[in-house]
Design brief:
183 residues; alpha/beta; Rossmann fold; UDP-glycosyltransferase activity; hexosyltransferase activity; Glycosyltransferase_28; UDP_glucos_trans; transferase
């Protein structure tokens, strides 16, 4: 993208399935506009039928983004805390600001606070000031990235997606719960 700057990249995606999150995207862009960062916002399906809106500051908005490619460049991810995005971020040692909305996302956000890999702000209490505080804290305090690297190492030691696939295949073929996985 020719519009990218040399500022730290803040990649924001609130999933591809949930409803319209335009108000949250505006708050993210407004918060980032006050910081020395380059926000890239992936709108997903939440705004599929609408034109891509203009956001405050230097935010670049796209319908879809190659998330794994963006994570290689990102200093921080702002996410809804879906399991796929969460694991992709941790696999790439990217700290997060989580805005949980539904299902297991509040629990995932709480785990990010607990593990020190990020900060969580419930969707119903997101404000520009809270976003600025969380983004600034996660970018400036080195322990967030260090903790994300520790999680990345733990995922690698556990066998990553290959191990998960083995467990799923074992469970499917045995038709039994799997309590202990053979090495």
């Amino acid at each position: 993208m020719s519009r990218l700057t040399d500022q730290p990249l803040v990649y924001a995606s609130l999933g591809t399935i949930l409803g319209n999150a335009q108000h949250l995207f505006h708050k993210i862009a407004e918060g980032c506009a006050t910081l020395d960062v380059q926000p890239v916002i992936s709108l997903g399906r939440s705004m599929e039928s609408e034109s891509i809106p203009e956001f405050p500051g230097s935010a670049i908005a796209v319908r879809y983004a190659p998330q794994l490619d963006w994570l290689k460049r990102a200093a921080l991810m702002i996410t809804h805390g879906g399991m796929n995005t969460t694991l992709e971020c941790l696999t790439n040692a990217i700290p997060m600001v989580v805005i949980p909305m539904v299902n297991d996302q509040p629990g995932i956000g709480a785990r990010f606070n607990w593990s020190g890999c990020g900060e969580s702000i419930p969707a119903n209490s997101v404000s520009v000031d809270k976003l600025i505080k969380a983004i600034t804290q996660v970018l400036r305090v080195p322990s967030y990235r260090e903790n994300a690297r520790l999680m990345q190492s733990a995922i690698e030691r556990c066998g990553g997606v290959t191990k998960v696939a083995d467990i799923v295949e074992l469970a499917a073929s045995s038709n039994q719960p799997i309590c202990r996985v053979p090495n």
